[in-house]
Amino acid sequence: MAAAPAAAGSGAGRGRRAAATVAAWGGCGGRPRPGNILLQLRQGQLTGRGLVRAVQFTETFLTERDKQSKWSGIPQLLLKLYASSHLHSDFIECQNILKEISPLLSMEAMAFVTEERKLTQETTYPNTYIFDLFGGVDLLVEILMRPTISIRGQKLKISDEMSKDCLSILYNTCVCTEGVTKRLAEKNDFVIFLFTLMTSKKTFLQTATLIEDILGVKKEMIRLDEVPNLSSLVSNFDQQQLANFCRILAVTISEMDTGNDDKHTLLAKNAQQKKSLSLGPSAAEINQAALLSIPGFVERLCKLATRKVSESTGTASFLQELEEWYTWLDNALVLDALMRVANEESEHNQGASEENGLPHTSTRTQLPQSMKIMHEIMYKLEVLYVLCVLLMGRQRNQVHRMIAEFKLIPGLNNLFDKLIWRKHSASALVLHGHNQNCDCSPDITLKIQFLRLLQSFSDHHENKYLLLNNQELNELSAISLKANIPEVEAVLNTDRSLVCDGKRGLLTRLLQVMKKEPAESSFRFWQARAVESFLRGTTSYADQMFLLKRGLLEHILYCIVDSECKSRDVLQSYFDLLGELMKFNVDAFKRFNKYINTDAKFQVFLKQINSSLVDSNMLVRCVTLSLDRFENQVDMKVAEVLSECRLLAYISQVPTQMSFLFRLINIIHVQTLTQENVSCLNTSLVILMLARRKERLPLYLRLLQRMEHSKKYPGFLLNNFHNLLRFWQQHYLHKDKDSTCLENSSCISFSYWKETVSILLNPDRQSPSALVSYIEEPYMDIDRDFTEE
């Protein structure tokens, strides 16, 4: 009796399959309609109804249709694969079928990612497309996840070799067929399961590569705390696996970027922060915390980042890994380039051996040094990226302590000349489709990642002095002693056992390569940012003099004036650095005047400043603050600089200050404020705060009003400024905002900032220091709602 329903069900299933087959052929007795089957399969894939898998067709029908459509027998193979992959199967036949399918897809994928696209162009429906359309992707996901199913208390097992074949086929399909990666990304349980496959060395690289691609398109960030036994998984990785795992971590610990410019406005960021406060920590923050809780994780990253090429994996294991890489197309292109370098060096060595009568050693047994170096570079750039993100996260102080303890900085200092900033050889490796100057090449990417790490490490943190060696720290102490000023407390507290060793510290090495950098180099921006971060925070005379003595100011002025730099990014970074270098420093202004020693040079300098105030406003702010301090000092040296320096004389003129103030307010609006241009608002406030100190605030506001009228737009500037200051209060008076940056950059207490803004926003039209007193009633527009939900 029990068998009857099963038989009926089976018969009904055959009936449905036959009906579907007839429908696909365009009705009983009709001729097959070209593309009709594929169209229905595609529709079924989108809706989940109707034709979705090869198993819904008969083998006879698929064989007959394949003769016309040239599907390479893939639907029939999928039909066999389905039949041989049931729960009680031993999977031997299943693996044999996968071995037949794999080459049909791998050659196509190889052609797809190279310039040899003839195969995919000649075929209307590529093999990978057919494989996916007939349900191959979903079937492989089911097969891979069989170990999650238990039968009578025992979990099913599949071999590592079979897992590798499944992963290979899935990856090749993702490469060639649009939408497959996104569909896999939607299967959260599958994505989490993939992490468990990394426990095996045999399937690690294939799994990691597929996960990286999936996470790259996943709309919602995966949470690492949902990965089973994450701590054990990561702790059991060898150093080679950990370095590759960092490629995945790069996606999981970085905040997701919307890619929409207006979402980078401060209005949008503030709205997002309010939303985040109610939702709790983001997935990226949770993932960072999960990684930092793994014992020894940061220490192992530091060892990877600082190990020398000679300490990396041996030739045999490295060659084995490269051979595995060859099956993974994003790395195969790199491998091609590596092998080209290897062949060049091998031919060179062979020629030398023949001339000397020496036996030739095979490349397989003697790996070229250039390949070892490139291998290490590709590892290090991933590791440095992860460390950099952790340094900028919520646990920044914890990461800082660990990085210092595990001697990351002295380790990088030892690698600087031979690996990080090594000289390019004639056969320097570049990625497929790129050139040596492309920012995507491993050499260049490593340099940029290294500079970003230094910037994050130094920014507003006392550990920045680890970038120096013992002699350089002594030099800082001597500078303070000679100037008769207290030594910087952070210098005194620096653990001398953790600083750089050798003749030069990392900061000095960076300055040396910075001064040699070609004018058009993209590194200039990152170099200037890294050095500027060392100066950020409370102004230190000793730090400034340390850099001034090494010719930094003259180098910056040469780049701005003599090379007439055109890059806006580089100019901005150089102006910011120059401002920090000169702020409150009389010696710096003397050096400036000595270099800019003609009116012609000074006019070029002013032209660069005035060409974009968004880029140069931090320098304008620093010079304005310095002028104010110098004017209140009684000192012959200061008086001499005030009387001779062209820049100070220029900034001291009220028309100059009013011109800067007018333009700074005019180029920004609440809706367009970003982290980059909000400095214009703060610089305009600095000018007005200093005017308030001298009881000249009403004069400056009156002059702004006159400038408005002269432009025939009464009220447009002051209304805008009123809205900007209202936003300033919302932005900077929020409880989670750190006001110390404003205090440190200006040496003006934050309370004075708040008071000045409140005075300017006073609604009393009788107040001589209130903005509303200078906006005529017909032009008043100060209550505009600029909130962004």
Automatic annotation (TrEMBL):
Region of interest: Disordered: 345-364
Listed under GO biological process in this entry are:
ubiquitin-dependent protein catabolic process
Q: Which UniProt keywords apply?
A: Receptor
Q: Name one GO molecular function term.
A: phosphatase binding
Recorded hits in Pfam families, A to Z, give:
DUF3689 (PF12463)
Q: InterPro entries given for it?
A: ARM-type_fold (IPR016024), TRPC4AP (IPR022162)
Which Gene Ontology CC terms are recorded?
Cul4A-RING E3 ubiquitin ligase complex
Mark out the compositionally biased spans (Polar residues). Answer: 349-364
Q: By what name is this protein known?
A: Short transient receptor potential channel 4-associated protein isoform X2
Name its species: Acinonyx jubatus
Q: What is the name of the gene encoding this protein?
A: TRPC4AP
